[in-house]
Amino acid sequence: MHFAYPPRKSSNPPPFVPRSSRIPALRRNRLKLAALACLSIIFLFWLFSGSKTKSSPKRVITGTPPVVIVTAFEEKAVGSEFIRNAKSNRREYAKLNGYKVHLVSANDYDLNGSPLSWAKVPAMRHAMAKYPNAKYFWYLDQNSLIMNPSLKIEDYIMSARKLESNMIKDLPVVPPDSIIKTFSHLKGDDVSFVLTQDKEGLSSGSFIIRNGDWAEFFLDTWFDPLYRSYNFQKAETHALEHIVQWHPTILSKLAIVPQRLINSYSKSGVGAQYEDKDIVVRFPGCATSSSPGEVQCEEEAKRFLPKWQQAFKNA
Fold first, then answer.
1. What is the pTM of this model?
2. Which of 15, 180, 202, 238 is the most interior residue, by most CB within 10 Å?
3. Is position 266 within any domain?
């Protein structure tokens, strides 16, 4: 039996051509993109994990002093005796309770033509820079006197237990029928801004702010040149009512408390009238200049001078 021989290999084989080792362009591009994506993820992970370990420690407020009392005086508009009594009143109260005072002239601040009542906002910001470790700042306008030296702000007003029992929840921010209301679920520890209402709306003559980043944000927002340019009828007070109603970030830290807690009035016409043992008495609507027929702040305050002086003497 004969078998066919396999064909002989050619003595002149075609030249050897190795297989191309190049990856097709599309595949190569995809691999590059994947590599870049992996490198980006690794870099971002390193960046954020490193920033956490190297970031500045969280600011700690030591509460020294516990409270700073702030007043911006329109000294040219009020008699010097009245100013001396008001300053002495605040200094004595601060001394008895271990507080500090920040008593300044409203003219110290550039208000760009706005009413001097706006000075309370930069005065508070100034006090926060001067006393960065203070826990609370109490703004009290010049037409006021502290009457009860035994009441401490950090206990009487700002403790979580007191705030939760005193704050008025689900209350129209601007009476009588604002659709924006104070939060009904707010806890005492969440509050950073405490003030009162009178019969006309929010009262910005006496309020308390808890120190911190939120307080700085709030004061900077309130003092925005845009709001000062609006020429609100009640200047900074109406600006405050505006931002409280339109900025939930501010409303979420606000507690409105009964007026007599920090803002009793010498007369009952527009708000709660002062009673013995209230912490403060204010003289709303009094004249700061010698306008005929108007009750002068200095005259209005005279009947309260013996009371606060005796109370402080007995403290």
1. 0.81
2. 202
3. yes
Q: Single out the residue of 128, 104, 127 nearest to residue 116, CA to CA.
A: 104
Q: Which domain holds residue 88?
A: 67-314
By CB neighbour count within 10 A (0-12 exposed, 13-18 middle, 19+ buried), where does 275 fall? exposed
Residue 215 within a domain: yes
Tokens of 16: 């050897």
Residue 210 has a pLDDT of 98
CA gap 95, 97 in Å, rounded: 6
What is the side-by-side strand order in the sheet with 144-146? 144-146, 280-282, 264-265
Question: How many distinct structural domains can be found in the chain?
Answer: 1
3-class secondary structure for the chain? CCCCCCCCCCCCCCCCCCCCCCCCHHHHHHHHHHHHHHHHHHHHHHHHHHHHHHCCCCCCCCCCCCEEEEEEECHHHCCHHHHHHHHHHHHHHHHHHCCEEEEEEHHHCCCCCCCHHHHHHHHHHHHHHHCCCCCEEEEECCCEEECCCCCCHHHHCCCHHHHHHHCCCCCECCCCCCCCECCCCCCHHHCCEEEEEECCEEEEEEEEEECCHHHHHHHHHHCCHHHHCCCCCCHHHHHHHHHHHHCHHHHCCEEECCHHHCCEECCCCCCCECCCCCCEEECCCCECCCCCCCCEHHHHHHCCHHHHHHHHHHC
Instruction: Confirm whether 269 is domain-assigned.
Output: yes
- Whether 62 is covered by a domain: the verdict is no
Tell me, rounded to whole angstroms, the distance of Cα 55 from its chain centroid.
Answer: 24
CATH of the domain at 104: 3.90.550.10
Instruction: Kindly report, residue by residue over 205-261, the tens digit of the pLDDT.
Output: 999 999 999 999 999 999 999 999 888 889 999 999 999 999 999 999 999 999 999
